[in-house]
Structures are given as structure tokens and as C-alpha cells.
Amino acid sequence: MLEMIKQNAVPAAVMRSAAKGALSIPAGEMIEILVYLTRNPVFGQEAQMTLAAWDETSARAVISGPAPQEIIDYFWMEQNRRPQLMPALIENPQLPEAELTRVAHGASHELAGMMVTSPRV
User: Which residues does 81 contact at the CB level (< 8 Å), separation at least 6?
Assistant: First the structure.
């Protein structure tokens, strides 16, 4: 489905449904599509809002395991960080240690606390 969306091979109604997270596909694939759509000039804002409200349990499951790097990067960006997801991101080896170090220098008290308690950090 993502490849079809990338190629603009789906109708606008399907794109609209995708931006709302309303496609009947696995959570990991839906999140990957939403992250891709955040860069779309028409559907980007809707996709961002959908990701911001995405179920924490399924989002955590996606970012805890091997996931497309775009998903890891999206949820790690400061404007997209959700405190409930940070422990899973911090522990994910796909997040480079250099990135953890970079963010640690200016981390909020809450994020610094999560990093201090992390076995990885």
C-alpha cells in the first residue's frame, strides 16, 4: 500500500482515509504510511494529528522492534516526542548512540530521567 501511495496510484479518498489512519492494515504499515504522509502538502497535517493521537500500545510495539528508520526518526524528533514512547525509543538499537548523546546534553528533566534509568544509556 505504501508503494502505491508513494506513486500516487491511489484515489484521493484513499489518501484521505490513510491520513486519518482508517485503512484496514497492520499498525506498523499504517504508521509507516502516516509518517510518509506527514510530508505531503495536502494530507500532512491530518497525518501528523493522527500520529499524535495514535494508540500508545501499538505505537510502542512498532518502535520497540525493528522498524523502518523513518518511523524511529519521526517519533524521535523533538516536536513529535511522546513521553510514553521515549523509553522504547531509547532502548531501540536503531536509534544511534550519537543521537542519544546529542539529545542528552539539552534534555528536559523528564527525558534525562528516562535516559538515566535506561540500561542502554
Answer: 75, 111
